[in-house]
Design brief:
Helix 3 runs antiparallel to helix 4, helix 4 packs antiparallel against helix 6 and helix 5 runs antiparallel to helix 6. A two-stranded antiparallel ribbon has the order 1-2. It is mostly helical. The protein starts with 11 loop residues before the first strand and ends with a helix. The chain has six helices and two strands, in the order E-E-H-H-H-H-H-H. It has two domains: 53 residues, no CATH class; 82 residues, Multidrug efflux transporter AcrB transmembrane fold. It holds the Pfam family ACR_tran.
Length: 150
């Protein structure tokens, strides 16, 4: 028996001994770009018999995928149907909904010109911006409808 030094604990994940790596993307890079770069590096450098697994937030991002491509159109459709029920018309809600593409185009152009990336904060900002633009359009349509009825 002899004294040696070593780790005070051994981490396991799914029953295998693991080494935990943590990091964050550099400024100007998205988490998706960092993930792709790390995957490429690991595929080149890891020896046979060793593999990697994503956990926590990155694992959740992989599972979620590009759900925004489905969520945004469904939100627009739901808003249109609610407005159609409220106005009892198909044309008035159409005037409100047509503001959404112009708003998103302007906002995305601003994000690109600012050199920003499409992260979760940008997406939340887009949702808020669309909500505010629709609110303003609803007020304008209501005002025009009232004036037309007079």
């Amino acid at each position: 028996v002899s004294d040696t030094s070593g780790p005070d604990r051994v981490m396991h994940y799914n029953g295998f001994i693991t080494a935990e790596l943590n990091g964050a993307p550099a400024a100007g890079y998205s988490s998706g770009q960092a993930q792709a770069a790390i995957e490429k590096l690991l595929k080149e450098e890891l020896p046979n018999g060793m593999t990697y697994e994503w956990t926590e937030l990155t694992y959740q991002q992989i599972l979620a995928g590009n759900t925004a491509l489905f969520v945004f159109p469904l939100c627009v459709l739901l808003a249109f149907l609610v407005l159609a029920a409220q106005y009892e018309s198909w044309s008035l809600p159409l005037a409100v909904i047509l503001i959404v593409p112009m708003t998103l185009l302007s906002a995305i152009t601003g994000v690109i010109l600012a050199g920003s990336d499409n992260n979760i904060f940008t997406q939340i900002g887009l949702i808020v911006l669309v909500g505010l633009a629709c609110k303003n359009a609803i007020l304008i349509v209501e005002f025009a409808k009232d004036k037309q009825e007079e």
